[in-house]
């Protein structure tokens, strides 16, 4: 069974291109997942399965631009895998119009139940497994490229300051905010390597994030290290680590695509933009 959530949109969700910002999609996924797990099954009575979990991994594929509308956007969510201490939720963000489904994004989230008082993961209970089984639609695991383990010598550095509003009720930075930190570091990096060039439009095609440790609120900044792992004719991949010294809190890979706002299609940028990306290309 799939759960369908009707997610209201906000004008503040839009970016400079008039599309829903890639970070906001992850917020939509969170709303849909919590609605599903707080609405159905015996575990919904306690709320622990909806709120007493941490995100271990996000995979988000952006398929088409989503523009603002007063009509809510629909999100289907279901479970693709149940393990001893983790479960995976899949999503599809779409509108049904004229008898056709217009899909804007597909995603998966790996979650683990968590004992916040002891700061440790735990196993799923029988009641929780029973609840998740209602939504189970197993699928074949897709191959995943290895995430970056360490940063190369030539990287871009961005100091990220955690805001108090970034922190959830458990004292951890909310998983959605990691996408914001990656976005801020990416913008700072491209602004530096394209200094003096005219602004260029880009969209995010894919974002994968592995969450390793919780980030906590503090006055000192954390470090985001970013570099380019691939450069194509119209797209590139940027790898990042969110860290504090040798402690890594998250690893990420973001695929960006150069975008023509007039045709609403990908485009080949002038060579200086690709050259700038190659200057941070890891060996």
Helicity, in percent? 10-25%
Query: What form results from the Cα inertia axes?
Result: globular
Report the oligomer: single chain
Alpha carbon gap, first and last residue: 46 Å
**Count of separate structural domains:** 2
Number of helices: 5
User: Considering the protein shown, what is the CATH homologous superfamily of the largest domain?
Assistant: Hotdog Thioesterase
Q: What would CATH call the architecture of the largest domain?
A: Roll
Which radius of gyration do the C-alpha atoms yield? 19 Å
Write a brief caption for the model.
The protein is of the alpha+beta class. The protein has helices spanning 22-39, 48-51, 126-133, 175-193, 271-278, and strands at residues 3-7, 53-62, 73-82, 87-97, 100-115, 120-121, 156-160, 202-211, 222-231, 235-244, 247-260, 265-266. A hairpin with a 2-residue loop joins strand 4 and strand 5.
Describe this structure in words.
This protein is an alpha+beta fold. The chain has 2 domains: 1-144, Hotdog Thioesterase (Thiol Ester Dehydrase, Chain A, Roll), CATH 3.10.129.10; 146-283, Roll (Thiol Ester Dehydrase, Chain A). It is built from 5 helices and 12 strands. Strands 1, 2, 3, 4, 5, 6, 7, 8, 9, 10, 11 and 12 form a 12-stranded antiparallel beta sheet that branches. A hairpin with a 4-residue loop joins strand 3 and strand 4. The chain is globular. The model has no long low-confidence stretch (mean pLDDT 94). It comes from Nocardioides aquiterrae. This is Acyl-CoA thioesterase. Pfam families: 4HBT_2.
């Amino acid at each position: 069974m799939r759960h369908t959530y009707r997610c209201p949109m906000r004008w503040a969700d839009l970016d400079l291109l008039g599309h829903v910002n890639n970070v906001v999609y992850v917020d939509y996924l969170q709303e849909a997942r919590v609605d599903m797990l707080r609405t159905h099954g015996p575990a919904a009575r306690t709320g622990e399965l909806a709120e007493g979990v941490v995100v271990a991994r996000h995979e988000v594929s952006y398929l088409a631009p989503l523009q603002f509308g007063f009509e809510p956007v629909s999100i289907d969510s279901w479970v693709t895998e149940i393990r001893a201490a983790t479960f995976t939720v899949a999503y599809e963000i779409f509108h049904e119009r004229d008898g056709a489904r217009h899909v804007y994004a597909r995603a998966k989230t790996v979650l683990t139940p968590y004992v916040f008082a002891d700061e440790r993961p735990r196993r799923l209970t029988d009641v929780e497994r029973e609840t998740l089984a209602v939504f189970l639609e197993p699928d074949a695991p897709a191959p995943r490229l290895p995430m970056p383990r360490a940063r190369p010598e030539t990287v871009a550095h961005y100091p990220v300051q955690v805001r108090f509003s970034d922190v959830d009720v458990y004292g951890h930075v909310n998983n959605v905010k990691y996408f914001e930190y990656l976005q801020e570091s990416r913008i700072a990096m491209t602004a530096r390597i394209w200094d003096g060039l005219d602004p260029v439009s880009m969209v995010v095609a894919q974002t994968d994030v592995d969450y390793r440790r919780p980030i906590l609120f503090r006055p000192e900044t954390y470090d985001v290290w970013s570099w380019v792992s691939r450069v194509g004719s119209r797209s590139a991949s940027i790898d990042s680590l969110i860290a504090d010294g040798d402690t890594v809190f998250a690893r990420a890979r973001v695929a960006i695509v150069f975008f023509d706002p007039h045709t609403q299609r990908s485009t080949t940028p002038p060579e200086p933009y690709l050259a700038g990306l190659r200057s941070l290309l890891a060996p």
